[in-house]
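Q: Here's a chain of 283 amino acids. Please give me its 3D structure as tokens.
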Amino acid sequence: MIDTATIPPSPPAGLRYRYNAHLWSALQTLVRRRELVASLVRRDFTARYKQTVLGVAWAVLQPLAMILVLAVFIQRVAKADTHAAPYALWSYMGLVPWTFFGSALNNGGMSLVNNQPLLNKVHCPREIFPTAATLLAGVDALFSMTGLVVLFALYGFVPRGTVYWVPLLMLVQVAFALGASLVVSIITVYVRDVRNMLPIVLQLGLFASPVAWGLDQLPHRYRLIYCFCNPGGAVIDGLRRAVLYGLGPDWAELGAAMATSAVILVLGFRFFKRFELGIADII
């Protein structure tokens, strides 16, 4: 007979399982697993353009086609003030970061579900999958920059000397996209309706972001709130200021975007790790 009186009500402190999620340690793990991340990016990149005639040219043609739609139809409604910059070039400057974000969120949000065969076979941190999807979106964005070079040459427009702000602005966008992808990817595992809602949300987000219209069209008292809610808006406006106008970012708006992006990245990572343990039981 077992004396139940000698059984402690809970395991000793030394035997308790503690699941710690630290952003810095996760970054170190991603660096150690960089070969796996690179393999996932190469696999998805190859699968996306495999057996296509134009290949990676689609990364340029798709935003150019969208620019044609914006220039022909949306410009007449939005009536954006481009401050003497060509509208096609001006809108392309907004479309590149938005396309990056949309692709990262769409592919990153579905990354866990789409990699179901690997999840239970390969021992690795699950955040590798949305991270690889975000990096793949970054590769596509780099190719789409070719279209921007073509437009600069076509209009005889020279980028301004303040282009050195671009890396900082894109870093904010990457943090925002990665944090959002982590959140959406883990929610999609538990609530599969998200996969049907995501394309609708992205379509609405395109018009809610200052791609076809300028951030200066918002009343000044609402711009800071808008940048808190949508960091991508401040990034797009900052890119136009830096590349087209020779100005630095609006630091109040960019500061709001940086704060929101940092919060989304940190809380998104902790949210991801909090519900990561149940993935294997559901997928």
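Q: Can you summarize the key feature?
A: The first helix runs from residue 23 to 32.
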